[in-house]
Amino acid sequence: MKVRNIIPVAALVFSTALANAQQLPPVFDNSRLATLETTPTVRKYLSPVKIVWQSSKEGANIHNAERFLTKGNGQADLANKNMCVLTSTSSVRPGILFDFGTEIHGGLQLVTGMSKVNKPIKLRVRFGESVSEAMSDIEPEKNATNDHAMRDMIVEVPWLGKLEIGNTGFRFVRIDLVDADVQLQLKEVRAIFVYRDIPYQGSFNSSDPLLNKIWLTGAYTVHLNMQDYLWDGIKRDRLVWIGDMHPETSTISAVFGNNEVVPKSLDLSRDITPLPGYMNGMVSYSMWWVLIQRDWFMHTGDMKYLKEQGVYLKGLLAHFISKIDPVTNSEKLDDGTRFLDWPSSENKPAIHAGLQAMMVMTLKAGADLSRRLNDLETAKNCDEAIAKLKKYVPAINGSKQAAALIALADMVPAEKINNEVLSVGGVKDFSTFYGYYMLQAKAKAGDYQGSINDIRTYWGAMLDLGATTFWEDFNMDWLPNASRIDEMVKPGQKDIHGDYGAYCYKGFRHSLCHGWASGPTAWLTEHVLGVSVVEPGCKVLKIVPHMGDLSFVEGTFPTPYGIVKIKHTKTADGKIVSDIKAPAQVKVLRK
């Protein structure tokens, strides 16, 4: 009886203590708890799906490594059964390389057993987005780094306990014993998967499994980057790069709908960039902020949030208007870094053409938002500035990036741009960031089949190399004799991760999960499934599919009023039959 009474007595004591919070440490003060920041993410634990490599044969210095492939529970215990035993000598430091099956964001959990020596044991842990990165050392030749996130470290694991380490983007992990003549008993090695537990409200399914996989891969790439803020990459560039966010926010609208990570990130960039400064120091990135604000308002219809941007938006638009040469009608954005994307960064004439077009696009979006905010003076100023800018069309100097923007700004007919520039050489000179705008310009020209083919070729090539997320950059010239990212590089092969890349993403510094590469997800929803927003808050949608060589396409689209369900089927005579079910508050136009 006495044992049974312990529980209610203990509960009474603890509840009394909570009622007198001043007697407890401050962390138990309910009023203080209410002010503490909470994380929007959850944690789940993944066992490896494969052992890619071991430093020695089973039974030599590594015994029972296969046990890591069974599901764990994260708990050390005294049974000490079915352990993996790693034993080092003066000449051998055993190591194992694990594959967790897909790119994730998070860290690693190590659960140990008992050992002959009751003291911590040193392990070297290396995270990698590719097999070759996880096998690499921190060195300059292939640019393996610990930039932005620690991916190569030495840690001490406890005796009969648990250690959780790491916060990065990875798929592969290598562990090695560091010291000589030690033995480590390991019960579990599990990945800690940290992500927002949110539903995929949008969907895409068609008669082409490759397009379906590309759509989902783009969605997952952005999902991983939706951490406390909307990041560019989960390994490197774990920062809010506002220009890079535009493809991401387009994907979020198509897949997840309204999510607080977007306004939170937009506001961060605004608040740390007082005018007349440019976001991230780049003149185009403050333009992307305006374009994202317009697109986000169209999807959410959140007038309260838009009004919060009014003062900053007015000042920013006035600054852009002041940066137009009154004689030549040319942009003169000479007070910040002039940048479109990295592959075009050395083509100064192309950057000039791109910025001229972006000024037109930005001021058009700004005029629209200003009218909705009843700031008619700013809207009028934007309209007059656009008319001036359109009088001068710079040469694109062979750049597909600049060509796409010129077409999207209606400065040159999209059909002409597509025929003379964008379609020349297929996906040659595409980039994972501006590829989205090249696809948008091709769609504007009516070349939907060409866009579908380009998506299959360019983004499909990354999947063929073992990608489970899309990359910071990719070049079709890298393909000949290239290794897969999920295999050891064979003799005579090129290392697709370590041997390529340029600018800030040389070698292993190259991010293999970059949200700006998700453009095909948004594009397929908009043009193949056929959904475009006509009125703010998705009150009016236009649904016109462009199926190309597909026999059917179906999917869903999130709106503030609920999910729109869509299915298009091509009949034998080439006609398209559509079945669309939308919430009562959403009007659907079909022409």
Automatic annotation (TrEMBL):
Entry-linked Pfam families: Bac_rhamnosid6H, Bac_rhamnosid_C
Alpha-L-rhamnosidase six-hairpin glycosidase domain mapped to chain residues: 201-528
Keywords annotated in UniProt: Signal
UniProt-listed InterPro entries: 6-hairpin_glycosidase_sf, 6hp_glycosidase-like_sf, Bac_rhamnosid6H, Bac_rhamnosid_C
GO biological process, alphabetically ordered: carbohydrate metabolic process
Ranges for domain Alpha-L-rhamnosidase C-terminal: 530-587
PANTHER family hit by this protein: ALPHA-L-RHAMNOSIDASE SIX-HAIRPIN GLYCOSIDASE DOMAIN-CONTAINING PROTEIN, C, PUTATIVE (AFU_ORTHOLOGUE AFUA_3G02880)-RELATED
Protein name: Alpha-L-rhamnosidase
Organism: Chitinophaga silvatica
